[in-house]
């Protein structure tokens, strides 16, 4: 079966909300969220794709990112885990928004959990006041 892609406006809305709180430098007009259906990849929940420097030069544009969410896995998750996956993918985008990636030495479970805790705290005023 071929992979199918569609825009994921619901995920984009959540990513924009997360970016307002945790990633104020993020140029969300330069980020697209998509769902993919039919991947044969094992264990992958989401991916971050970037428009690399050579393509930026060829197209005459700056950095651009696509966050791909594997529907078969992502859509079955609870809200807390979905939020953490979105945070994870957003963490891959560097502050310079130049087309590169932050790697898993930075994007790791400890840092994701810290940012998730910070997101809940800032979003809801008290880390215990909101339960998913």
Report what the structure shows:
The protein contains 5 helices and 4 strands; from the N terminus they run βαββαβααα. The protein is of the alpha+beta class and 132 residues long. It has one domain: Zincin-like (2-Layer Sandwich). Strands 1-2-4-3 form a 4-stranded mixed sheet.
How is the secondary structure organized here?
Elements: E1 4-7, H1 9-22, E2 31-37, E3 46-50, H2 53-59, E4 65-70, H3 71-74, H4 79-91, H5 109-124
Helix pairs in contact: 1-4, 4-5
Name a few traits of the molecule.
132 residues, 4 strands, Zincin-like
| Main sheet strand line-up | 1-2-4-3
Number of strands: 4
CATH architecture assignment: 2-Layer Sandwich
Q: Compute the average pLDDT.
A: 91
- The SS-based structural class is alpha+beta
- Describe the global form: globular
Report the portion of residues in β strands: 15-25%
Describe the structure concisely for a colleague.
The protein has helices at 9-22, 53-59, 71-74, 79-91, 109-124; strands at residues 4-7, 31-37, 46-50, 65-70. It is an alpha+beta fold.
